[in-house]
Amino acid sequence: MPHGQDVEDDTADHSSKYECLECGAIVESETHPGECPECGGDFQNRAKSLE
Ligand SMILES: [Zn+2]
């Protein structure tokens, strides 16, 4: 029963982008990066993964 399962495009990207509210640095991370390494500002989840 080979069903040609070549649909391996399951790019369930768990990471989302966070943008520093202070300097605008973009960080891609699975979890909240905490504070910006550049300026110590707060990160804001930029692109919420489509659910
Ligand atoms: Zn920053």
Automatic annotation (TrEMBL):
Pfam families: DUF7129. InterPro entries: DUF7129. Residues 12-47 form the DUF7129 domain. NCBIfam families: rubre_like_arch. Gene3D superfamilies: RNA polymerase ii, chain L (2.20.28.30). This is Rubrerythrin-like domain-containing protein. The lineage of its organism: Archaea, Methanobacteriati, Methanobacteriota, Stenosarchaea group, Halobacteria. It comes from Halopelagius longus.
